[in-house]
Amino acid sequence: MTRSIINHYILKRTAIFIAIVVLAIGGLLLVMNVADEISRRGSEDYSAWDALLNELYGLPLYLYQFIGPMVLLGTLISVAGMAKSSELVIIQLASRSAAGLVLRLLLPGLILLAPIFYVGEWVAPQLRLHAEIVRADKLGRSRPTLSGEWYRDNQWIINADFISPDRVISGLTLFELDSTNQLTSVIYAQQAVPQANGWRLENARILEFATERTAQSFAEESLWFPENFNADLVSILSQRTRELTLSQLARQVRFATEQDQPNPELSLTYWNRFWFPIQYVGMLFLALAFSFGSFRQRTLGDAAFKGVALAIAIQLLTETAGSLLMVVGVPALLAALVPTGLFVGGAFWVLRRRL
Asked: What's the half-sphere exposure (Cβ side, CA atoms, 13 Å) at 224?
């Protein structure tokens, strides 16, 4: 019963402090971004209310970029406050071991990990994309498009002159190869419209290469069903990386690999986002490391400032280290995992020294 009360107290206290930190930083970012957006608006149709809504939709993605240091700060303030008022001594006595104490103190942050990861990787990017589309329409600007792009989907080499925001392709050229990479046909369609899992080609000219002859034909309408290159994939390819969900980003990386045009930067971005939970746990370890110890010769504010500054520096350093590892030929998976793993291991080692 006593342990249940203690767990509930720690959970409630830490959750409140994390919420205060997130709301305070989020509110500050919102005010600054709205003021900046209003000062730069270029149309009477885009009102101050529209600017506020646009920044509200984009706020979750802004917060997610530094949610690790924010959770660290909330956890640090909560645990360090208990240490300063000697509450941590009572909690330590109620815990069976040092590991039990650490788990109790980490539990609030660990419970928040799943919803934070889901919102940050699936909900926030789509909210940001919606905000960008609405903003572009209000300001009379064009939505994200693609032009002059080349792709490969199995036996098809694909060239698209222009892909509109509605995923309609103007000027689509298809080169079909056989198993020996010999050209067997060329198709040029003035327009390709999404159709189920494929495309409806309009005003298509077809040139087929046989062993001894070449055949030409024309079709006002024909259907083309490639294995991967459909309207959903085109929509993903036209978006900026930060506005892609984790699953959409994985699909884009897989498609680039399948067409023998791997994108190292894209792969590193995917794996950095994929390993976020590991870095998040490292931030919690770091929060406890700064929370333990005597506060007679240091203040809680001093510990909080040093903890947050170190957390932000480590987050930026791990991203830079991943890019450097990619330069020397390390695969993207390891380039993202190794710096994060070293950080978590170092934070855990420091925490053990503090216990």
From this structure: 31
DSSP state at residue 172: E
Give tens-digit pLDDT for 239-279: 778 888 899 889 888 887 877 777 888 899 999 999 999 99
pLDDT at 38: 82
Write down the H helix ranges in the chain: 2-40, 48-65, 67-84, 87-94, 98-118, 124-139, 231-237, 246-258, 264-274, 276-291, 300-327, 332-354
Classify burial at 194, counting beta carbons within 10 Å of its beta carbon; exposed 0-12, middle 13-18, buried 19 or more.
middle
Spans in the chain with pLDDT lower than 50: none
- Quick one: tokens of 104? 């109790």
Say how far apart CA 103 and CA 97 lie, in whole Å: 10
pTM above 0.85, yes or no: no
φ, ψ at 133 (rounded to 5°) = -65, -45
Task: Please report where in the chains the tokens 């032009």 appear, as a residue.
Answer: 147
Pairing of strands 146-153, 198-209: unpaired
- Would you state the pLDDT for residue 238? 73
